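Why predict the complex rather than its parts? Because the way molecules touch one another can change local conformation, and only a joint prediction can capture that. The input here totals 672 residues.
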Amino acid sequence: MTEAATFEMRKLRPTDLGRLSTVGLRTRKLRAGLSALGIAIGVAAIVAVLGLSSSASAGLLNEISSLGTNLLVVQSGQTLFGTTAELPVVAPAMIARIGAVTRVEQIGSITGNVYRSPLIPTIDTNAITIDAASLGLLPTVGTSVAEGSYLNAATAQEPVAVLGAAAAQRLGIDQVYLGERIWLDNEWFYVAGILKPAILAPAVDSSVLVGFAAAEHYLGFDGHPSTIYVRAKTSQVNTVYGLLAATANPQNPSEVDVSLPSTALVAQADAQGAFDGLFVGLGAVALLVGAIGVANIMIISVLERRSEIGLRRALGATRGHILGQFLAESILIALFGGTIGVGAGTLSTAVYTAAKHEVIVIPTLAWAGGMGAAIIIGAVAGLWPAMRAARMSPTEALWTV
Amino acid sequence: MTSDAGAVPTQRLDDNLKRFAGSADQPVLEVDEVAKVYSGEPPVSALRGVSFSIARGELVGIVGPSGSGKTTLLHLMGTLDRPSSGHVRVTGLEVGRLSDRELSALRATHIGFVFQQFFLSEHQSVLDNVADGLLYAGVPQVKRRARAIDALTMVGLEGRPHARPNQLSGGQRQRVAVARALVGDPAIVLADEPTGNLDQATGQSILGLFKDLHELGVTIVVITHDRDIAARMDRRIEMLDGQMVFDSADNLATVTAAASRAPTSGNDHRS
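Output of the joint prediction:
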């Protein structure tokens, strides 16, 4: 009755193809799930690796930019003879005269060791340094006090010390109480405070800071700064950078090292991804194994479903219809695995970054690439089995044993 | 919707169909001097010079022992395979001249199959199993289901469209398979040992169903090894050793002609 009409449309509708492609998944759930698992693990590994490293470096970059990229560090370099040079005592004052400079602070390195008490063997120095520090140091290097208080005009004259974050940890001091002392080069110094980590000035972290006056009085400090921290107007950082060496030590500018810590840290953040390649490679191996699993499942499926293929050919399916059905099924299994993999990779990244209070970043390349890889794997793994199914003659397929 | 690749053959097929629809006298199926040789060592001659034609509305039983070429004949009649020589024409269309795509389209719209093993998919309902009979005919799902209801009514299973095949008895399952064959309103229904997996009483009820459908004008060919079943058909064709040895529809003249042909080809076979 509708013969003419039915002959006009013989292409399988997308909805019908979609329904057919789920037959294998619905009838053999466990098997399809297990073969999708291989793909899922591979995609999850890739997404998690790329997500974790991107989140970590994004976090670091955020922190660097929040600390400011306009900090310049002037350090005493080396003389022509290889000995450590000295910065002139007036260097900070001279640097402060440069127009674009907004802040200048200094520390001066002091020879000596720090101990919890005189009873500690002298060899246990814990690699802690002693530095004389100017009073406005903290905001300039981008850190603040974690515990207690920093030096002030009064305490800078007295045997009082403030501990850098790492120095406090190495000394085993995590809180400040009244009368707490440390043994500084044969003198008792009272602990006034503990600092938070200074990302832009790591030298401060492992240091015990005392006032300039106290250092000269109690520790025999000569008053020469060893490192000068300079904040300049952000737009003129490069100009200031060029002027610093000559301004700090006009007689011997070559004995001054000038650096911009934020650029070094940015480069370091970018370099964090260096080992990603290895893990992405491992993820790719998992994907390959997953692809072989899918191909294997599809071959078995084609063999098992011979009579179904025969029936479909008898119902009027063309070779193309059969090819399409099995190819779509294989892609669907892989896509299912890929979706789970992206989900698992994102979830593990989210858990990790939440624990470290970082911002979660999943690069587009990671999730889109993971899904794309899954689709391609499904197509490639399913192609040969699907072609086998399509090539099967209807009579051969109906030949049940 | 017609793809470019399929446009020309579809047109040709459509023209043929219109011609067929115009002539009520044209046989639904013509088998003309058909032979089938399976290559191998030695080659197996499954069919040798079989000729008959089936008119619209006939109920035909093809009977023969195993190895007589019944299944090969079914495959050729159903366009699942091509003859080595001779001609098979379904609704006037020469099977040998059609491409695989065109044959698939022909099966989708003009031939219904009923198999001994039912071949129902357990993961979908009875209704969808029947509707799948139209899957490759390009009919939208809503229409497929509507027509599946009609087909289920024809086989007396209209009450359980949403049951799963495994909730049905063997006889009911075979009725579902028959409904699937009928859903496309085919020119001919080919049934391969339809009672082979059923007990005596259930088998009889399926044969009763075929009789009823025959009354409604459906053309049915039943292939069986069971002489009793064949005897219940209006017309009976007997096969033996790849040859047709009896056709109840033949008049004396054709039977004589067949008999005179038989020894010759038989000698060829033995030599």
